[in-house]
Amino acid sequence: MPKHFHRELEKLKKRILSLGAMVEERVYMATKAIENRDSHLADKIIKSDYEIDEMEVDVEEECLKILALYQPVAVDLRFITAVIKINNDLERIADEAVNIARGVKYIAKGKKLHFDFDFYSMAEKTEAMLKKSLDALVNLDVDLAFKVCILDDEVDKINAEAHRIVKDAIKDNPDHVESFINLLLISRHLERIADHATNIAEEVIYLIEGEIVRHREIL
Question: Which of 48, 100, 122, 126 is least enclosed, having the fewest CB within 10 Å?
Fold first, then answer.
């Protein structure tokens, strides 16, 4: 392949990593918004979502242009197909951060609810999964990518526990049903971010090893 093809690949890599950094920042902001019931920070997440959408479209168009112009094969083709999928997952993670921000804005308006579950801790674990998946992409670290896949089970368990606790709280506090439902939704959005982080890790494994590990149990 000509040198300018490899320059295009390098430019594409920088773009997807830049998008990853932007999305990681949004998840960090969502985590802080949960911790502090910060409606102003939540507003920032919502209002800046267009930036992620625009970059996601730019990355996809760049991938399609490279496929059309150079018809790459082997590892280069794997890289581009992986970027297309990771690009989509990153955009969906940003959407989930927006959904969390909307939930935080609603909860922040009401009375502070007291029950035995730490949403901030769950958010931190989810944020760490995203960071690890992006680090695995940057460093082409297959071991780290596998670790992300394993961590997804932990977040699933935390999400199930959150649902149990919040549902019990609804029974004891029927006057605050809508606020508790928003907490359930925040838990679900965090779990979805973890799922998308796992998808990214799986694409990194595919990129490095050429093996599709979706739907496969990872021990």
Answer: 48
